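ligand=manganese (II) ion
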Amino acid sequence: MSKRLQIKSILNDDYVGKNIIVYGWVKTFRSNRFINLNDGSCLNDLQCVVDYEKLEESKLSKINTGACIKVEGEIVKSKGRGQSIELITNSIDILGESNPEKFPIQPKKHSFEFLRENAHLRVRTKTLSSVFRIRSEVSYAIHNFFNKNNFYYIHTPIITGSDAEGAGEMFRVTTLDSNKKNLDFSEDFFGKETNLTVSGQLEAEALALGLGNVYTFGPTFRAENSNTSRHLAEFWMIEPEMAFYDLNDNMNLAEEFIQNVIKHTYEKCKDDIVFLSDRLEKEEMSKPKDQRSELSLIERIEFVINNKFKRVTYSEAFQILRNSKPNKKGKFKYPVKDWGIDFQSEHERFLVEKYFKCPVIVYDYPAKIKAFYMRLNDDKKTVRAMDILFPGIGEIVGGSQREERLDILNERVEALGIEKEELWWYLDLRKYGTVKHSGFGLGLERLILFITGMNNIRDVIPFPRTPKNAEF
Ligand code: ATP
Ligand code: MN
């Protein structure tokens, strides 16, 4: 592997007095003398000092924001403020020019909307590069956590034939001519109707009942037509599935897992997170006082790492919401009246942000609003489901103990009118060595929203897929 010296190492290790070569993109070039150079290895730039009298005019005019250059010179202690070391440039090569008139990412504040339209270049900003470094570290931390805890990383299909999961609207996969009417799917590539996966859970259950503890980590597709700042049409989901786990074990694992991943990332990405926390604080200052969040990003992260999540049943949460001020004053768009309603985002956020002021796990939901595979409680009205709700985001995890009893699962499948033939293999799992088991799904981007303090899910995935948008 070619070992390019990274700016991160130059800034962190002792290079004073050494002659080095460094590559990167020009952030700014001030007074024909100071280049701020960044190579993506860390938040900070390396200041390169140019002696413009010694440099050919043809090169000097090409040191523009966005250009890629190679610099050779000596690292010295900096006399200026703002950095402890700098590079005294000996020679510069222009590797890739950038027209300063046309390069969209100017050294000034850009709106996130503008940056989304330039998603191919937005990684050149401090904010987005920080987010993507954090995204990488979070992904590593997730694999690391499961690996250390003896979970197997499994791969479930992206093209699926099971449409019974009901987790969301699906994208169809077909090679049939879509101009024809009355498509005959027996003529299709797979000989049946297929879709992009909305969840790998059913397949993960099959593998857990043989491997023990498994997890998936892969892309997930939902034709969500809702255009919110929390939903993508293509997102990444982590789905652990554990044999011999009941709902309590499941909640314990989810809590430990989330805290562990956040803690790891916080320690590894301190600079980026401090930067994002400051960014958010400035943004908050422009809001009216009563709408600002009480805690900074760093305080929120520390709080979540150090405090237990609050656990309440759906029925308890329902009572809290029904008796709450905003409900009594008619402030909720969806009033909380009858037991059995699905909580809306405004309800979840009230519970988390106003009432408990910490992450909340709501469990034992009404069977009617949850999927067929969740284990029925003895009351016959609720199921062993749990959602984890986070401040500023709402739901970040959805999980459950699965129904392992064939007769009850059959009843639920029939009651919901789901085609049994489609589920034959899933039902088989209850015939051959069935046992209690549980699992959950964590949306990677929702977790990253929390860790970065970003507001829009489109800004925590490099190339977001949302309704009417598949550019790049
Ligand atoms: P929501 O009510 O927010 O739409 P859901 O109930 O559809 O979520 P699940 O089916 O339980 O969610 O999926 C598990 C997890 O996947 C969610 O807790 C969330 O973190 C994430 N998730 C679900 N849908 C999306 C989406 N469209 N974009 C990004 N993440 C998502
Ligand atoms: Mn959804």
